[in-house]
Amino acid sequence: MRQYLIATAALGLLALAGCETTPDCKDSGYHDFENSDSKGGNVPGSAEDFRNSAKDTVYFDTAKSNVGAEGREAVKSQADWLAKWPSVNVMVEGHCDERGTREYNMALGERRAHAVKKSLVKHGVNKDRVETVSYGKERPVSKGHGEAEWKLDRRATTVVR
């Protein structure tokens, strides 16, 4: 009986110690300060690292969902970063400017997110690591109502999950 309790306790400790020190282990409290940048703890493989290392946003022309030349550069930087961190998954968020109906913009945002996902997969990212969602015109980054502001809202942003 005593050996059984010791074995059970040992297995429990092993299970607790098995939490990896990667971005997948979000509540581990692990911080690699030695490998962090000097600006404030940019942990390699983290969402912050992704935002700082890769171009996380692809911009689109009005009513379009094809990834242009600048967008291809952004997708390539994302794919390169994801190749370094194979356990990290991402969500591609499709967005639109304020013009058009809610239904139209939800569909357009979905096409934009899927276009970025398709490009990531072409660059070697496993499709199972990439989810998509459309927010249509519901989450603008700009507060204005002109072409300069709308240009910022026509986007697909890739976010580490």
Largest sheet geometry: 4 strands, mixed
Order of helices and strands: HHEHEHEHE
**Which percent bin holds the helix content?**
40-55%
Q: Give the CATH class.
A: Alpha Beta
> Architecture, CATH level 2?
2-Layer Sandwich
Structural class: alpha+beta
Q: Count every beta strand, where a strand is a DSSP E run of 2 or more residues.
A: 4
What is the percentage of strand-forming residues? 5-15%
* Separation of the first and last Cα atoms: 44 Å
CATH superfamily: OmpA-like domain
Q: Over the alpha carbons, how many angstroms does the gyration radius reach?
A: 20 Å
Mean pLDDT: 83
Number of domains: 1
Global shape: globular
> Can you tell me the CATH topology?
60s Ribosomal Protein L30, Chain: A
Spatial strand order of the main sheet: 1-4-2-3
Report low-confidence residues grouped into runs of 5 or more: 4-38
Work out the helix count.
5
Map the helices and strands.
Elements: H1 2-17, H2 47-53, E1 57-59, H3 69-84, E2 90-95, H4 102-122, E3 130-136, H5 147-153, E4 155-160
Parallel strand pairs: 2-3
Antiparallel strand pairs: 1-4, 2-4
Structural features, described:
The protein has 161 residues and is α+β, with helices and mostly antiparallel strands. It has a single domain (43-160), classed as 60s Ribosomal Protein L30, Chain: A (2-Layer Sandwich), CATH 3.30.1330. Helices cover 42% and strands 14% of the residues. The protein has five helices and four strands. Strands 1-4-2-3 form a four-stranded mixed sheet. Helix 4 (102-122) links the parallel strand 2 (90-95) and strand 3 (130-136). The protein is globular, with a radius of gyration of 20 Å. The termini are far apart. Residues 4-38 have low confidence and may be disordered.
